[in-house]
Fold each of these.
Amino acid sequence: MNITDVKVYPVDEDKLKAYVTITLDHCFVIRDLKVIHGASGLFIAMPAKRRKDGTYKDIAHPLNADTRNQMERTILQEYERQQHTGGGVPSPFLAAAGDHD
C-alpha cells in the first residue's frame, strides 16, 4: 500500500489542527483523518463514527504499527510542509502522485 496523495485542510482550533484526505494506490480515498496536537506533540486520529452510547468507533484504521507509522509520517510531513509554505505549492511527492480526488 502506498499513499499516493495527501490533502491537508487546516483549521483554527485549539487541539485540532487539520482535516486530511489521503488516497491509497491512486484508487482508494480515506477522508476525515485529523491532525491533533496532544500532550506529546502532533498525531493522526483516524476517521470515527459516534455511536448511540456516545463513544466513538474508528471507521477505517491501520491493522499494524508499521502501517500506522508510515501513514502518520507521510501525513505529518505534508502538514508541516504546508505550515512552512502556506500550502501554495504542491510538494514533489504530491506533484508526482497527481490529483485523484
Amino acid sequence: MSFPALVEPAAELSIDEVRRYSRHLIIPDVGMTGQKRLKNAKVLVIGAGGLGSPALLYLAAAGVGTLGIAEFDTVDESNLQRQVIHGVSDIDKPKGQSAKESITEINPYVEVILHPERLDNDNVLEVFKGYDLIVDGTDNFATRYMVNDAAYFLKIPYVWGSIYRFDGQASVFAPMLGEDLPCYRCLYPEPPPPGMVPSCAEGGVLGVLCASIGAIQVNEAIKLLTGIGDPIAGKLMIYDALEMEYRKLKVRKDPNCVLCGENATVSELIDYDAFCGAVSDEAAEAAAGSTISVTQLEHMLKERENGERDFVLVDVREPNEYEINKIPGSVLIPKGEFLNGNALSQLPSDKQIVMHCKSGVRSAETLAIVKGAGYADAVHVGGGVVAWVSQIDPSQPTY
C-alpha cells in the first residue's frame, strides 16, 4: 500500500546540493521533487545508539533537511562495537553532540537539533511536536510504548526497529494514515514479563545487525517522506542474520486495541515503567529488605576469608559474561538454571545464599525463586557487577 508523501517539496536545491544528491536525482521515483521533499523533511531519531547510529548517518547522507536527536547518554567504549557514528575520541562525550559532529562532517546542509534530556511523560509530546516522522531506536519496552502512544496522539507516523543477538525486527506504525493500519500495541498488546526478555546489554548483539535493521528503518523513512514505494505499515519484517533470512508477516489492526481500537481506553500517557515493570512484583517483594550493597559484600567476603562467616556467592549471569569480569569467590549458576529448577539442587541448605548479576535485575528475579524454595535469609547484591567494578575493583573491564 502506497501513501501520499508526508512532506511538501522545498522551493529549490542549490547547485552544490544537485551535485551532492545526483545519484538520487537520476532515479525516476525520487527525482528532483523527491529530493526536495527530503530537504524539507524534519525527522526525529530517538537514540544515537546501535540503531540510531546508522539511521542518522544515512538520513543525513540522503539529505533529510532537519534531524532531531533525542539522546541523553554519553559515549562508552563498549558502544564502539556497533554505534558507528561515534569514535574513540568521543568516549565520555554526550552521544547527541558526538552524533551531531559526525552528521555535520557527512552533510553540512543538514540542520541538527539536539534533545539531550531523557524522554518521559513530561516532555515527550513537546519534543515530538513539529516533526514529520519519528525513527525509534530505543532498547527498552517502557520507552517503546511511550513513543507509540505519543506518536499516535500527535498523529505522527514512526518507523520502529528492534535488535537482539542475531535477530532483528522492523515495522512502520501509522494508524493515522489508514483506518486498518495497526499501532505497536496491536502487535504487542502487553509487554513481556519482567526479566523474560534480556536487553542487549545482558544478551549482546552482533554489531553489524544494527546496520541491517537501521538501513531498513531509513529505507522506510525515505519512502514515507517522499511518497514512493510500498512502506511496511501493517507488516513486520523479521531478519535472522545467522540464516541470512528475511520474513515479512502481516500485522492486523486489533479492534480491541486499548489505544487505537474501537473502544480505546488509553487516552493519555500512562505510567510506562509501572506498565512494563523493571522487575516482577515477586522479585520486588523478595528484594525488599534483602538487598545488600557491594561495599557490604566486600566486607562479607573478607569475613568469609577470615573464617568468620560462611555463605555462597552465586553469579546468575551467562558463561560468556562471567568470562569478561567477575566478583572473586563467586560461583556461576545462570538464571536459566533457576527458572528450570536445576539450580536448587546445587545450593547448600546450611549456608546463606548471596546472588548477583550484572545490574541487579536478574538476581532479584532469581532471589524470588530461592526464597520461595525456603532460603529465607538469601540476599542479592544491588547494582551487581557494574557496581562492583565501579566502586570496588575498577581494574576489571566493563561491558
